[in-house]
Amino acid sequence: MTAVQSEYSLWYREPERELLPTLEELGIGFVPFSPLGKGFLTGTVSKEQTFVQGDIRRTIPRFNDPENLAKNQALAEVVKGFAKDHCLSPSQIALAWLLHQKPWIVPIPGTKTEDRLRENMSAVYVEVLDEDWDKLEQSVSAIKICGERYAPAMLKMTGR
After folding, report:
1. Count of CB atoms within 10 A of residue 3's CB?
2. How far is residue 116 CA from its own chain's centroid?
3. CATH number of the domain that 35 lies in?
4. What are the C-alpha distances in Å from 159 to residues 32, 151, 154, 155?
5. Which of 48, 99, 133, 143 is the most exposed, having the fewest neighbouring CB atoms within 10 Å of its CB?
6. pLDDT digits over 96-121, tens only?
7. Are 11 and 37 within 8 A, CB to CB?
8. Local structure of 154: helix, strand or coil
9. Which run of H or of E encompasses 4?
10. Helix, strand, or coil (residue 48)
11. Which of 33, 18, 38 is nearest to 106 (CA)?
12. In sequence order, which residues have a C-beta less than 8 Å from that of residue 56 and are 6 or more positions away?
């Protein structure tokens, strides 16, 4: 096995408990999907957001429950503020944070436009001081994420 693919982002950090230490011990790479939290970490999802039929976020409690969506805005605001302080976009920060975690982590963000592709790719060149990453870590660690990451049927398929 050369790589494992699973969800991982500032919004879903469960892999840090057991998966990442195991991968590091075995020398296996990690390919996180949804590194932008299904768009949430881009800072473009408002607390009043609704999602059209066919959008997976319409089925996800973090998105489809207005109370959860409103409470989770705290995370998006921290990421937006950190990005602004570093003259970057929230997407660049979310991706650069993943790249900063381990050299064998290679996120795969989805994108719909060439501009977003370029923005996402530029995250590899982001330079942030370790002290600043530590401040971001302190800020996001204090935020309780509300709502499940998937609907019950989908969550059951993950084995969690």
Report:
1. 12
2. 16
3. 3.20.20.100
4. 17, 13, 9, 7
5. 48
6. 999 999 999 999 998 889 999 999 99
7. yes
8. helix
9. strand 3-7
10. coil
11. 33
12. 38
The whole-model pTM stands at: 0.93
Q: Which residue has the tokens 């003259």?
A: 87
**Amino acid type, 136:** L
**Distance separating alpha carbons of residues 104 and 99, to the nearest angstrom:** 8
For residue 40, the one-letter residue type is F
The domain tally of the chain equals 1
The answer to whether 35 and 95 are in contact (CB under 8 A) is: yes
Matching residue, tokens 């590194």: 35
Q: What are phi and psi of 41, to 5 degrees?
A: -75, -5
Average pLDDT, the chain: 94
Region of residue 14 (left: phi > 0; alpha: psi -120 to 50; beta: else): alpha
What are residue 119's phi and psi, to 5 degrees? -60, -45
Range of the domain at 50: 3-157
